């Protein structure tokens, strides 16, 4: 009753933030006065008290707890940075190809070579030329060329040589013939990769959509497992991605024993083990959203345009024009039906469903 405690703080001092365990530290530029019965003693702040207080945001008792949305933010950012899962993330193969594309354009500028797209022939009449490739039905030959070119840039512009034993061709060879060590020291050419993938797709009768899904699984494996595709493992990684994509995409999937007929020296046990490891490294995430598939398709088109890969163009025929018109009309009808369903109706103008009266005898 007789003692009073007065605390005077300057207006410029910053306020306290939250509660903290332990002794409280005064703010800098503040003075604390304690008045006892009849005696007033001014206490000057110590040098340690002049230092700014540091707040501990730990998870201990009495500390500020992190919100659950803050803890989930790194996972969301990691998801958006993975192109095989998020449609807004840029594909890895397109980023790796930009270095060579810029170098090629620079050399063409220095050597006064006109770029390839300026030498294309353009029609001066009303004839419309279309290439035989759409996002729903890509051209098989062109798609396989683009996918193998993407794999080529993955190998050429890799960051390191990180690999796993299950994909190492030296530990699990695909042929009984002895492969020289020099083979694994040089990056394979694009035509060599294309020949290997074309053999698999021709023998197994796979579709162009399967090639795009193969590339999605390949980049997902490199991201999840944190490995690189290099001369020692590219064949087995591509084989595992093709094997998995054919089973997920095609209704009548190719069995593992069928690939043993294509690659004569590989065993079914080896194929089963590689498929099991591939799925485990993907964390059994074999889902490919339509938005991700479309992104990979158009990025492959951009890659083909940057590297002057030819597309087969043909004049628009009457039959194909009618098919395109029918498809467009069908889409317009669907949009009109959806708009009609969204429209709100007034209760005054509501007309119920008319039912015929039944007479029960």
From TrEMBL:
Report residue spans for region: Disordered.
1-27
Q: Which residues cross the membrane?
A: none
Q: Which keywords, in A-to-Z order, does the entry hold?
A: Cyclin
Q: Which GO terms describe its molecular function?
A: protein kinase binding
Cyclin-like domain mapped to chain residues:
195-280
- Give the record's family classification: Belongs to the cyclin family. Cyclin Y subfamily.
Q: Which PANTHER family match?
A: CYCLIN Y, ISOFORM A (PTHR14248)
Instruction: Spell out the protein name for this chain.
Output: Cyclin-like domain-containing protein
Query: What organism does the record attribute this protein to?
Result: Molossus molossus (Pallas' mastiff bat)
């Amino acid at each position: 009753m007789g003692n009073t405690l007065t605390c005077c703080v300057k207006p410029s001092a910053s306020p306290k933030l939250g509660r903290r365990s332990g002794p409280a530290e005064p703010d800098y530029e503040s003075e604390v006065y304690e008045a006892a019965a009849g005696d007033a003693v001014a206490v000057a702040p110590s040098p340690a008290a002049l230092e700014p207080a540091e707040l501990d945001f730990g998870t201990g008792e009495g500390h500020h707890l992190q919100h659950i949305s803050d803890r989930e933010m790194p996972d969301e950012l990691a998801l958006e940075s993975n192109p095989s899962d998020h449609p807004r993330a840029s594909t890895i193969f397109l980023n790796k190809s930009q270095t060579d594309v810029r170098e090629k354009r620079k050399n063409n500028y220095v050597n006064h070579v006109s770029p390839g797209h300026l030498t294309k022939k353009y029609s001066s009449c009303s004839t419309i030329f279309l290439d035989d490739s759409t996002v729903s039905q890509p051209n098989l030959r062109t798609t396989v060329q683009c996918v193998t070119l993407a794999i080529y840039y993955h190998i050429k512009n890799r960051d390191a040589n990180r690999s796993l034993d299950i994909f190492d061709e030296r530990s699990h060879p695909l042929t009984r013939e002895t492969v020289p060590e020099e083979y694994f020291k040089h990056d394979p050419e694009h035509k060599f990769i294309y020949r290997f993938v074309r053999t698999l797709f021709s023998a197994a009768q796979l579709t162009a959509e399967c090639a795009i899904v193969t590339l999605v699984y390949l980049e997902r494996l490199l991201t999840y497992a944190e490995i690189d595709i290099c001369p020692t493992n590219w064949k087995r990684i591509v084989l595992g991605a093709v094997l998995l994509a054919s089973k997920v995409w095609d209704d009548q999937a190719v069995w593992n024993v069928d690939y043993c007929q294509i690659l004569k020296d590989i065993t079914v046990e080896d194929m089963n083990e590689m498929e099991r490891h591939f799925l485990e490294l993907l964390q059994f995430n074999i889902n490919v959203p339509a938005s991700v598939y479309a992104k990979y398709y158009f990025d492959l088109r951009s890659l083909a345009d940057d590297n002057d890969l030819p597309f087969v163009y043909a004049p628009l025929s009457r039959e194909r024009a009618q098919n395109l018109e029918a498809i467009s009309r069908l889409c317009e009808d669907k949009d009109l039906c959806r708009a009609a369903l969204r429209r709100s109706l007034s209760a005054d103008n509501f007309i119920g469903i008319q039912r015929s009266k039944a007479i029960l005898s």
